[in-house]
Amino acid sequence: MYRNISSLILAIAVMIMPSSLMSETVPPSVEINNRIIAKANGKAISLMDVVKKMDVIFYREFPQYADIIEARYQFYTTNWKHVLDDIINHELIMADAKAKKVTLTDGDVNEEMEEMFGPNVIETVEKLGMTYREAWEILKGEITLQRIMGYFVNHRAMAKITPQSIRNASEKYCSENTTQEIWTYRVLSIRDDNTEIRHNLANIAYNILTNDKVSLDNIIDELNNKNMIDATSSVTVSGNNKHSVETISEQYKEILLSLPENSYSIPVEHTSRGNNAPVYRIFFLKNYKPSKTPTFHDVEDIVKNNLFHEYAAEETIHYITSIRKQFNINDDSISAMIPEYFEPFALHI
Fold this sequence. Notes:
This protein is of the alpha+beta class. The protein folds into 2 domains: 32-162 and 307-339, Triger factor/SurA peptide-binding fold (Orthogonal Bundle), CATH 1.10.4030; 182-289, Chitinase A, domain 3. 56% of the residues lie in helices and 15% in strands. The strands form 3 sheets. Strands 4, 5, 6, 7, 8 and 9 form a 6-stranded antiparallel beta sheet that branches. The chain has a two-stranded antiparallel ribbon with strand order 1-10. A hairpin with a 6-residue loop joins strand 8 (268-271) and strand 9 (278-289). Residues 1-23 have low confidence and may be disordered.
């Protein structure tokens, strides 16, 4: 009721305030339509509880945007349902932690507070609209959650990682991450309807490339300077071609496999696929990367880490499902407390 009266007074004040003065004195703000939106283990959870939790997350993840109201509004509208779900799970886990007597010292929480908010803790949390005690309790809950999840999730996940599971996962990882053979090469192509001219030009070009050490980029100029290219002849140099074993032709593959890197093939006569005309080609192998399969030793740590995250995700779902069932919480009971057309936030600029 008080919030509605205050909002009404603010709205009247805004309507009668000169626009120039309003733009100078009224900063952007996010209106929070606070109400009870869930219950967990007998505890009512309000939208403001969700906002306080989001403020801690926002400050931790995006401190550079802490003073930008529009960014905070976007974060609120995108994440409030997810954070509400986390708070419900958190309350149930805390109840489970209490039943299992999971303990936490004040020193653990104080250390985390200083690490997150720096030496001026009180000043920083006040900027977030919270008291020191509220921030302290939120962090205490997070640390407690980490500990109980570490025991009921991480411990069980680690127990699932066996030598056999590592071997099976390693074999799969290695097969999926085997690199293909890759050839990077260029081609000098020489065409002329006259067989003798075509043959002689190809041999001259090969000698210039191999003996005179003229590069492919300069070979055409060199042949022109020597008046070797007849009016009926065509000499072209390709750019870098890059092909794997799946895309390279068998004919090209056979030639390239016989070459060391940075070397030229002897002129090879082919039939052009475009017009079936004869063409001489000289191949230059720039680089060859053979197929490589990782060893078990190479991937062991990666595989263990992947298995842990896979099993931890499974155990988290199992644990959350079990405690929600224990406390009689489900999606329908959560949705029943939130009006269908509920608009939790409004941005005022």
